[in-house]
Specification:
single chain; 453 residues; Aspartate Aminotransferase, domain 1; Aspartate Aminotransferase, domain 2; 7-stranded mixed β-sheet; 4-stranded mixed β-sheet; 13 helices; globular
Length: 453
């Protein structure tokens, strides 16, 4: 069987070493990086670096490359748009791509109501604008997000995000009128409590939260990731999501689904919220929407979206022609290549492999996922469930040495998350999973060695 990963040099290699020195001199250390090398080319689920090393990509630019690197259809659409024009500013002279993409997404999004779509640049911008739209429509100020949630790095979205380091530490003061509600974490639920009882317990906590923390009649919107991304790939049960949704309806609160990481076929649906039989008032989108070209958006009920007056929404580069062209091509690829079905197949295989690994390695405390959004939680002890961030980092480092790009997640930094392109071949997938097994093996072995310090 052909081998796809190929690391010929130590990392960083000689060319990457030179670039790394320049990076240290000219780029602030606050901008993090993973594997210590630099990309030269990428196609499908493979990335080649400047020293000729080839990596299988299980990170997907943090969930941005669901249709794969440099998909021919996306590349063609971008090049064709560049040849026509690069930018006019939709608020100066409109272009057809924006309207075509809005129409397509309005039809794809859940719900049979009339919808409108606003385009922006980044996920954080989409969330910021969802907040603006919700406040404008409801005439209320308060915004509720959830513990362990991640929504971005701008002032408002950083406030809504839970993880203090590295996202919030010493960056305050934060935006006012933002509250964090409880969200289930089934692996760490109280001992002896069933998942059903736990859902009811957390829903009751949410009801208490509406009494003790913020009055429901002051809340403009509740924003929820259908699967928590940076928070550790925590998948809620349908009863919890529907319970929150019903409470929102009861109190006239808008329900916002943050689909920035979960959308565009990652979980086996265009939108992960479809798994929960809930129709959001607003949906935020980005990441894999543009296959690497910056674009984001807010999809919502027309009466909510249309409340703002001309000039109150948008921006200079919002919904750029290149972004719209790329996104239209992405939607074609998802449909033509049946990527929703492919995501479900990939997810089943990854979960199957992770369960096998958890039988073999005591450090794997939990395996979870939805579609191809899969993860395993690394712990020091199966009984205490104490997080093991150090071992997690070691696993990811060992994977990089073997030619696999991998990411961590979770508020404790102890979750290995999987975001490979959905177009990955079966052979590349199996090789990547084998590298994960080898990497856990090596990291566990290294962990046993006595420290020389």
């Amino acid at each position: 069987m052909a081998k796809f990963s190929d690391v010929k040099t130590q990392l960083p290699g000689p060319i990457a070493k030179e670039l790394l020195e320049k990076r240290k001199r000219y780029v602030p250390k606050g901008v993090s990086n993973g594997v210590p090398t630099f990309a030269d080319s990428a196609e499908g689920a493979l990335v080649k670096d400047v020293d000729g090393n080839t990596f299988i990509d299980f990170a997907g630019a943090i969930g941005t490359i669901n249709v794969g690197h440099s998909h021919p259809k996306v590349n063609h659409a971008i090049k064709e748009q560049v040849d026509r024009f690069i930018h006019t500013g939709f608020n100066v002279m409109m272009y057809e791509g924006y309207v075509k993409l809005a129409e397509k997404l309005a039809h794809l999004a859940p719900g049979d109501h009339d919808k409108q779509v606003l385009f922006l640049n980044s996920g954080a911008e989409a969330v910021e604008n969802a907040v603006k739209i919700a406040r404008k429509y409801t005439k209320r100020q308060a915004i509720v997000s959830f513990k362990r949630g991640y929504h971005g790095r701008t002032l408002m979205t950083m406030t809504m995000t839970s993880k203090v380091k590295p996202y919030k530490y010493e960056f305050g003061p934060f935006a006012p009128e933002v509250y964090k509600a409880p969200y289930p974490y089934y692996y760490r639920r109280p001992k002896g409590m069933t998942e059903a009882d736990y859902d009811e317990y957390v829903l009751q906590e949410f009801k208490d939260f509406l009494v003790g923390d913020v009055a429901p009649e002051t809340i403009a919107a509740v924003i929820m990731e259908p699967v928590q991304g940076e928070g550790g790939f925590v998948v809620p049960n349908k009863r919890f999501v529907q319970g929150i949704y019903e409470l929102c309806k009861q109190h006239g609160i808008l329900f916002v689904a943050d689909e920035i990481q979960t959308g565009f076929t990652r979980t086996g649906r265009y939108f992960a919220i479809e798994h929960f039989d809930v129709v959001p008032d607003l949906i935020t989108i980005s990441k894999s929407m543009g296959a690497g070209v910056p674009i984001s958006g807010v999809i919502g009920k027309s009466e909510i979206m249309d409340k703002s007056e001309p000039g109150e929404l948008g921006g200079t580069y919002s919904g750029s022609p290149l972004g719209c062209s790329a996104a239209l091509a992405v939607l074609d690829v998802i449909e033509e290549e049946n990527l929703n079905q492919r995501a479900e197949k990939i997810g089943k295989r990854v979960i199957e492999k992770f369960n096998q690994l958890s039988d073999r390695f005591d450090c794997i405390g939990d395996v979870r996922g939805l579609g191809a959004m899969c993860a395993m939680e690394i712990v020091k002890d199966l009984k205490t469930k104490e997080p093991d961030k150090k071992l997690t980092n070691s696993i990811i480092s060992e994977a990089g040495k073997r030619g696999l790009l991998l990411l961590s997640a979770g508020v404790f930094g102890n979750v290995v998350r999987i975001l490979m392109p959905i177009v990955i071949t079966d052979e590349q997938l199996e090789e990547g999973l084998s590298i994960i097994e080898e990497s856990i093996e090596a990291a566990v072995e290294n962990n046993k060695k006595p420290s020389l310090v």
